[in-house]
Structure formats: structure tokens, C-alpha cells
Design brief:
By secondary structure, the chain is of the alpha+beta class. Helix content is 30%, strand content 23%.
Length: 213
């Protein structure tokens, strides 16, 4: 059962204010609206999702029986603005599976598709709203710096992260948020953030390249 923290409401209001401010500046810069997260599209892919005969514990939802579905995939960067590709940032993969039959969560949902939203980190580096408030504030300030300073900040953060891990300390959410690599999007492995009800199990979805990176 979810339990709200005492400071959850004011922290939520602060986060929304930061996101609205970021979105407003992005609009003024580009003179058109952009998303408040994953604003930049790097490409769209069309393909097929082939579901083979799976073990019993994996036969859930659209994976219940062998089938082939058309998919459309959007690759993106996480910031709520359009930055240079040379600036490291978390990357996203949104998969829309076309023509999925079955019961819907919402009673009025007449759609026939299913979406999977993935990012290139296995778990969120912030586990509480307080840590997210700290991270989003720092990332917002860093995003206003020139591109060369943002690249330098990421390089310094990676060095600090490695040093912290070397002495057996878990890096904090802020450090992990800044210490991003800048690998090719198609060489990344992407993960769902939320746990997904999977029949009798709780699961996470992952998409990984077949070839060696």
C-alpha cells in the first residue's frame, strides 16, 4: 500500500514548477511547444515483434501465444529540451505494439495497441520524491550551461562516480544523473522502470541489441 510522505505534496508542487519553467524556456527558444520530458526524437523505427513459444511462466498478456505484431519505436533523449547530441543524457525507447487483443485496464479504452516505455538504465537512480527533486533541480541548472560545460560536467561526474564505487560506496542519485555515458542509441540496452504485473509474477521488460556492441 502506498504511503504518502509528509513533504510529498510540497515537493510535487516544486517539481511541477521546475518542469513548467523548463518547458516555458524551451518554447521561447524554439518558438513551438516541446514535451516536458524526452523532447528530442532521434529516430523512428518500424519492425516486427515475434513472440515464439515461451515457457509457461512467460505466457502472459501479448506473450501468451506465438504471434507476430507490427511495432513502431521512437528513440529519444530524456531532457525536456532539444540539446546537442554530443551532450550525454539518458536515452529512451518507446515501443508501440499494433493490434493487441485482450482486456483493457480502463473500461472505455477501445484501442488495440500496447505501449512499452523503456530507458537505458536498469533502475531509477532516485528512489524517493525528495531525491528526484534534488536531481531535477541540479539537472535543470546544468541544462542552462553551454554544451561544452555540460560535456565537461559529465566527464567529471563519471570520474567521481568511479572513485566512489572503487571504495565500496553507492553513488547518489545526483551523481548518477550527471555521470552519463554517450553511447550509440542502437547499442544500448533499455529497461522498463515500473514493475509490470505479469500473471502470477511481477516483471520488468528489457530490449537489448542482438549484435555485440
Amino acid at each position: 500500500m502506498e504511503v504518502l510522505g509528509e513533504d510529498e505534496e510540497p515537493l510535487t508542487a516544486e517539481i511541477l514548477e521546475i518542469m513548467a519553467s523548463t518547458n516555458g524556456r524551451a518554447f521561447e527558444r524554439h518558438r513551438h511547444a516541446v514535451r516536458d520530458a524526452h523532447a528530442k526524437s532521434h529516430g523512428f523505427l518500424k519492425g516486427e515483434l515475434i513472440v515464439p513459444e515461451l515457457p509457461a511462466h512467460l505466457r502472459q498478456g501479448l506473450f501468451a501465444s506465438p504471434a507476430t505484431y507490427s511495432v513502431v519505436i521512437r528513440l529519444s533523449s530524456a531532457p525536456g529540451d532539444i540539446h546537442s547530441d554530443t551532450i550525454p543524457a539518458p536515452r529512451g525507447m518507446a515501443i508501440k505494439v499494433i493490434g493487441v487483443e485482450g482486456e483493457r485496464l480502463l473500461p472505455g479504452d477501445q484501442g488495440g495497441n500496447q505501449d512499452f516505455l523503456l530507458v537505458n538504465i536498469p533502475i531509477l537512480s532516485f528512489g524517493t520524491i525528495g531525491k528526484y527533486r534534488q536531481l531535477i533541480g541540479l539537472l535543470e541548472k546544468n541544462a542552462q550551461n553551454p554544451a561544452f560545460l555540460q560535456r565537461a560536467m559529465a566527464g567529471v561526474a563519471r570520474g567521481v562516480e568511479a572513485a566512489v564505487e572503487a571504495v565500496g560506496v553507492e553513488p547518489g542519485a545526483t551523481l548518477r544523473g550527471l555521470a552519463r555515458d554517450n553511447d550509440h542509441l542502437l547499442g544500448e540496452t533499455y529497461h522498463s522502470m515500473a514493475a509490470i504485473r505479469f500473471g502470477d509474477y511481477i516483471a520488468k521488460i528489457s530490449a537489448a541489441p542482438l549484435s555485440d556492441n
